[in-house]
Design brief:
Elements lengths: L1 H18 L12 H5 L2 H18 L2 H16 L12 E12 L7 H10 L4 E5 L3 H8 L9 E2 L12 E5 L3 E4 L13 E6 L2 E8 L9 H17 L5 E6 L7 H6 L4 E2 L22 E6 L1 E9 L8 E9 L2
GO molecular function, one term: exonuclease activity
Protein name: Endonuclease/exonuclease/phosphatase (EEP) superfamily protein YafD
Keywords: Endonuclease, Exonuclease, Hydrolase, Membrane, Nuclease, Transmembrane, Transmembrane helix
């Protein structure tokens, strides 16, 4: 029994070290960003560890597993920067989806647009044919303004902002980090100019690790340079609050996902999604409701938020 207790304690200490990795602001070794995103897994394993530790009377291991849960929760729970403002009448419903090389089901996208009465739709990995297919539907015709061109053929680069409100393109300074398309628009919401940015930095894989981190940091610099304006940043961030660079990118903004964000990726595996990397971040807007939608053909969940422009 003593050996069992020692093994349970060793495993708990290893779990604690893994759960603490989100506090490392670095990109090496190359597996680190992936491990940082596994907070939900560490919680599940820690709960199992507590059960086994109680049965074995391994109290030190039990305590270590409890700390694992607490540490992991800190990087998952969304508890800061909720907008402190009075909601006005001006409504802005936003939805974002990584369309997976434009293979996401157009009919389901349009159904979600109708269900949530979406005013601004942000799509990543989208193509011109897909945008045309959306625009050809009755509910897709609402989007009378768009941010610009996207690729014609299957590609990861394409991102677009589609708006039913009058909107004008906003130039975004070129950063040093390589990213996919990340356009911005100024959307006129009942007389209030709301700045909207589509987000899609590089993924945290070995060849793009520096660009991934740099792209997130540049998003943080950009949104803080536009402080004082109502702002939405939405898309596939390829990062969650478990990553220091994402925490910097959203500093001063609010993640509309609520207290316990729903995992949004991956949706095309035998195991359930484990990472909340798709976000709608806001500033100067009141959050009325939010949620996710499963769209066939996409490897991400769509994320939506029902917003109101702050009256003060």
């Amino acid at each position: 029994m003593r050996v069992v207790r020692a093994l349970l304690t060793l495993v708990a200490v290893v779990l604690l070290a893994l759960a603490a990795t989100p506090w490392l602001d670095r990109v090496e070794p190359s597996w680190l960003p992936a491990v940082q995103a596994l907070g939900r897994l560490w919680i599940v394993l820690a709960v199992a560890g507590i059960v086994l530790s109680v049965l074995a009377r391994a109290w030190l291991a039990c305590g270590a597993n409890a700390v694992v849960i607490a540490v992991a929760l800190v990087t998952i729970l969304n508890v800061s920067n909720r907008p402190d403002c009075d909601a006005g009448q001006a409504r802005l419903s936003v939805m974002t989806l990584n369309a997976y090389y434009a293979e996401a089901d157009v009919d389901e996208i349009v159904a979600a647009v109708k269900s949530h009465d979406v005013d601004v739709l942000i799509l990543n990995e989208v193509t011109e044919p897909m945008i045309a297919a959306i625009s050809a539907t009755e509910d897709g015709k609402r989007f009378t303004h768009r941010s610009g061109q996207t690729p014609e053929a299957r590609d990861t680069d394409g991102s677009v902002i589609l708006s039913r409100y009058p909107a004008t393109r906003v130039d975004v300074p070129a950063g040093e980090a390589a990213t996919f398309q990340q356009p911005a628009m100024s959307v006129d919401v009942d007389g209030t100019a709301v700045l909207v940015r589509a987000v899609h930095p590089m993924p945290p894989v070995s060849q793009w690790l520096e660009d991934w981190r740099g792209g997130l940091l540049e998003l943080g610099q950009w949104q803080r340079a536009n402080r004082g304006r109502p702002l939405v940043m939405a898309g596939d961030f390829n990062a969650s609050s478990a990553h220091a660079a994402f925490r910097d990118a959203k500093r001063g903004m609010y993640d509309t996902a609520g207290l316990w964000p729903t995992a949004t990726w991956p949706m095309d595996r035998l195991y359930p999604p484990f990472a909340d990397i798709d976000h709608v971040l806001v500033r100067g807007l009141s959050v009325q409701d939010s949620g996710t939608e499963d769209i066939s053909g996409a490897d991400h969940r769509a994320v939506w938020a029902d917003l109101r422009v702050c009256s003060r």
